[in-house]
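Hi support team,

I've been running sequence recovery on a batch of backbones for a student project. Most finish fine, but this one hangs at about 90% for roughly twenty minutes before it completes. I'm not sure whether the input is malformed or the queue is just slow. I've pasted the structure tokens below so you can try to reproduce it. Let me know if you need the job ID as well.

Thanks,
M.K.
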């Protein structure tokens, strides 16, 4: 997923209530800059949410999505925060996006000095804002980009060796060392479309509707809700069309039963192993999700702070959205910053029921 596509989390202050916008103004939340502006009727000025100017009374404040709307209402831009110009947050996001494009396409990985110079920033400053925007360091991002290129090359190159070197790895040894976590199987098996990788799966009916549970030899790799067995099976097979998919069978009986029990009692512990595949940052976020006690919730911002990266809110939101293990990795415990329920990959109604069962709503 590109940074440009993933720059906005599933729910934003721009989509929230005026009360949520007012809270962002009171907190001088720089993450809300660019999402809306607010005008103060008594002064005739409009500002960014993060503006450090003296606070206004709530009854005198109005909110606008665009600075042009504020000006059409007769307000003028604040000379301190300059809300009619691009914000620092937006400028940093653009610089990081350009660096990501370079890391994704360059044949030889650019060094940190070169990336920083291209952005017109110091080495230290560039490294800091890159991690704030993406949630990972430039080196980790480059590694993930190479892994994506490997996946593409493995499908098209004449051999595994050619694919590895064409993707920017200096040696096959380095790639094979990282391949298990990147692909979840050997490069040869991946190149064959997952041939030889056995995935057992089964369907069950829960109080939240149809659920698919799938496992590899390492543990559960998917828990998905849906309305149609064929659609769920197609999703499972889409990435690895030649994997050996084994429906039903005695091996899945206990796995399915324990997963269904977890859905009915999401505050219980799941004693089955999980085959969690993702980037280092995604696994860090998912581990933090699993550490949220049943009956409690977090916002994206709070979760980002808990993993020690308070500026990586958007990256945390993307990691939550990429979760393939419903309930086992409890992304349903993430709510909006204003306390509202927010979105959920498998439907808001399911999210509400899960939280009610845990006593969180």
């Amino acid at each position: 997923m590109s940074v440009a596509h993933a720059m906005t989390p599933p729910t934003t202050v721009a989509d929230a209530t005026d009360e949520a916008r007012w809270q962002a103004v009171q907190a001088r939340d720089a993450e809300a800059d660019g999402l809306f502006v607010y005008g103060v009727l008594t002064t005739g000025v409009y500002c960014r949410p993060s503006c450090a100017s003296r606070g206004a009374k709530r009854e005198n404040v109005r909110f606008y999505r665009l600075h042009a709307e504020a000006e059409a209402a007769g307000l003028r831009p604040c000379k301190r925060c300059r809300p009619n110009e691009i914000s620092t947050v937006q400028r940093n996001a653009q610089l990081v996006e350009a660096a990501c494009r370079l890391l994704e396409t360059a044949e030889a990985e650019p060094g940190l000095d070169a990336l920083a110079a291209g952005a017109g920033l110091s080495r230290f400053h560039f490294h800091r804002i890159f991690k704030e925007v993406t949630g990972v360091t430039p080196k980790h991002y480059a590694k993930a980009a190479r892994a994506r290129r490997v996946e593409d090359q493995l499908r098209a190159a004449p051999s595994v060796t050619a694919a590895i070197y064409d993707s920017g790895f200096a040696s096959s040894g380095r790639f094979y060392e990282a391949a298990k976590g990147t692909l979840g199987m050997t490069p040869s098996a991946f190149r064959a479309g997952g041939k030889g990788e056995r995935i057992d799966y089964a369907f069950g009916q829960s109080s939240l509707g149809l659920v698919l549970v799938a496992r590899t030899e390492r543990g559960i790799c998917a828990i998905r809700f849906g309305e149609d067995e064929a659609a769920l099976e197609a999703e499972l097979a889409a990435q690895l069309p030649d994997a050996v998919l084994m429906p039903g069978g005695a091996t899945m009986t206990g796995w399915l039963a324990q997963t269904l029990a977890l859905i009915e009692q999401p505050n219980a512990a799941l004693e089955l192993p999980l085959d969690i595949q993702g980037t280092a940052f995604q696994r860090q976020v998912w581990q933090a999700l699993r550490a949220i006690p049943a009956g409690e919730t977090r916002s994206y911002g709070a979760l980002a702070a808990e993993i020690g990266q308070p500026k990586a809110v958007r990256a945390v939101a993307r990691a939550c959205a990429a979760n393939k293990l419903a309930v086992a990795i409890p992304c349903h415990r993430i709510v909006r910053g204003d306390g509202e329920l927010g979105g959920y990959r498998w439907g808001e109604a399911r999210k509400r029921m899960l939280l009610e069962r845990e006593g969180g709503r």
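--
Follow-up from support: It reproduced on our side and the slowdown came from queue contention, not your input. DSSP finds 15 helices and eight strands in the chain. No action needed from you.
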